């Protein structure tokens, strides 16, 4: 209320306000299987401190998380477990694929027992290149994910708006 008696208003779109809250309160669940997991752990430690970017509360229960960080290679026996974890994470949910093993299967491990990218199991929002990627690369990926959340461009948000065609997630071929 101003001194002259007139009221002032703050207006915004509700989606923008909700997305702002979502992007600044990420609750990651790690799915770390190899050397990328060590880099992810150092990103969460005090030297890099991912909590400065809104990813402070690391959860080990999918029902309390909204961001899955897949760090490392995923073999075919782990694929159904990862899919189950993805399905248990509450909506909206986001996925970061960290490292060349998770993102493409890595040519070094191109064998029948490994998946050729986590996107064959679950939808991925942001890819982090490298073998292993640096903590700075993961922080950059989180910041890129936050931009996508704010704009409403993540897989989960597009699915909720009905803007995606085809299946809701990749078909699991195990």
Topology:
Blueprint: H1 14-23, E1 28-32, H2 35-44, E2 67-71, H3 79-88, E3 94-98, H4 100-104, E4 126-128, H5 135-151, H6 155-160
Parallel strand pairs: 1-2, 2-3, 3-4
Helix pairs in contact: 1-5, 2-5
Describe this structure in words.
The chain is globular, with a radius of gyration of 18 Å. With 174 residues, the protein is of the alpha/beta class. The mean pLDDT is 81. Strand 2 (67-71), helix 3 and strand 3 (94-98) form a beta-alpha-beta unit. The chain contains six helices and four strands; from the N terminus they run H-E-H-E-H-E-H-E-H-H. The longest helix is centred in the C-terminal third of the chain and has 17 residues, at 135-151. The chain has a four-stranded parallel beta sheet. It has helices spanning 14-23, 35-44, 79-88, 100-104, 135-151, 155-160, and strands at residues 28-32, 67-71, 94-98, 126-128. Helix 1 packs antiparallel against helix 5 (135-151) and helix 2 (35-44) crosses helix 5 (135-151). The protein has one domain: Rossmann fold. 36% of the residues are buried. Helices cover 33% and strands 10% of the residues.
